[in-house]
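seq as requested:
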Amino acid sequence: MYKKIILLLLITLFFSCKKSEEIGTNDNEKDKIKTARWMLGNWENKSEDGTLSESWKKVNDSTYTGTSYFLKGKDTIHNETIELTQLGENLSYNATVMGQNDDKAVAFPLTKTTDKSLIFENPTHNYPQKITYTLVSKDSLVTEISGMQQGKPSSEKFILIRTK
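struct tokens:
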């Protein structure tokens, strides 16, 4: 009888500990924005076509903001503000490009993540439909925009080097 009581207590203890571990895992899922910490900072790609710059900073525990612009000489060819926000368990890349979409943000929900990559997709957007960030090293990352453009598959990759 004594052995049965001990066994029952051990089983109860095991399952109660298991439940606590599961709760901890769920809490970590709510911190999806933390998987993007490596994006924080200033990044740049210089080419003969111009300079692409992207800067990210942490606003709070659920929001990072970014700016992206492309300069050709003294002309700004592209200017974009980005907000990476976590609402509940959902992480979204919200891009606002001046002169497009009535200057309103377009949301790209996170569809896949690893410790070194983030993939955001919006299949209803005209172009791009997919935005990918991949960490190559602590001072280098690759961004890729892709999707269908004028009925044809299209993609552009940019290798960015950390400047600060």
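The chain has one helix and ten strands.
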